[in-house]
Design a protein that fits this description.
alpha+beta, BirA Bifunctional Protein, domain 2, Rossmann fold, 8-stranded mixed beta sheet, 5-stranded mixed beta sheet, binds histidyl-adenosine monophosphate
Amino acid sequence: MIQKPKGTKDILPEESYKWQYIEKKIQELFKNYGYKEIRVPVFENTELFQRGVGDTTDVVQKEMYTFDDKGGRSITLRPEGTAGIVRAYIENGMASMPSPVKMFYNMAMYRYENVQKGRLREFHQIGAEVFGTSSYMADVESITMANEIFNILNIPNIELTINSIGCPTCRAEYQKALKTFLQKNIDKYCYTCQTRFDKNPMRILDCKEEKCKELNQGAPIILDYLCEECKTHFENVKKLLTELGIEYKVDPRIVRGLDYYTKTVFEFISKDEGYTVLGGGRYDGLVKELDGQETPALGFALGMERIVEIYEKYNKENMIKPEVPKLYIAEIGEKANNLATILVKKLREKGLNVQKDITEKSIKAQFKYADKIKAEYVLTIGEDEINNNKAKLKNMETGEETEVELTVEDICGHINE
Ligand code: HAM
């Protein structure tokens, strides 16, 4: 038997309705904040991620699904959404749209990761990006919207952590201090960290190797090196969050795993699961880096697999139910089958979930099936019913039977009571 590739998941019908519910709730929220959906290709030219995400990140160095296509172009399955959306923003001249431009997405991502709980190779992100504002108010609006996701989904025990990783100006100062600290023990770090020392020492702070994490203890923190502008920006973000009553913790160790971030970065962490459910931040340099005009921007993405998992955990009692058929029409004999087929078609045209047999089951098996699929009502049609133009409609929950006319109007009138 051929099995699915490692790190992928089938989302089966008994689960997909929960995904649809969560996606709908989040997308409604995003729409209220003025976001519109964007869809971009699953694969992009590899250079986009090398330049956008950064060629010293784990994502680019270790985790990308990259291959040459038949035309010899290097192609990569998107490991994240932001780079592709920035490319689309530039390529489609969106800078001329009324600013800010707010876009959301719901897309599959691909990373060759060590597979573990909550860490897959194909996973899904819902994200939101806003272009054309450098104001701290945009950071706060984005964080507020992210925070609201957990409220509307009734998910507790989520901790918001924020940090500022400054701009290229303050980062230059910081990197000097960081290098002096790292230099002392650089030969004890893992090989990857050693290769990152010259080009991008901040990436060393993001290393997941235990020995490197230990060596990083006591490293200088960027917050102590922020320039006036970045400091004021961060202070304003914190002040407004406090005024809005949004609880947060400043964690100076958040550097995020992607190179494009500037100033505010944030993560929403599930205290129970111990993983980050949602991550994001500002990336004021990325549009320019990818050959667009200088455009401040920011955004975030949340992992759908992770949010579905915790949603299920906390909403056991009031879990949404999968949709069940409103009506099942059971029939016996050719004439009844024809009439049932016509009725089902007309009732479906009215937007109702109505089912009938398409497998030539016996009448007994049809009843059994209607019961199994939890149809709310069952209407039974045979020769007598056709002659009288009347049939019994059974409410499957109460067992109550009513006689209805075999017309769409009368059936609708009864099942929609
Ligand atoms: P990220 O932190 O790499 O950020 O991913 C965001 C979220 O996607 C994570 O918090 C996690 O919930 C989920 N996620 C990431 N990797 C996996 C995986 N292997 N398996 C399951 N879930 C995963 C970004 O991707 C940025 N593009 C976010 C962003 C948007 N920043 C600004 N705009």
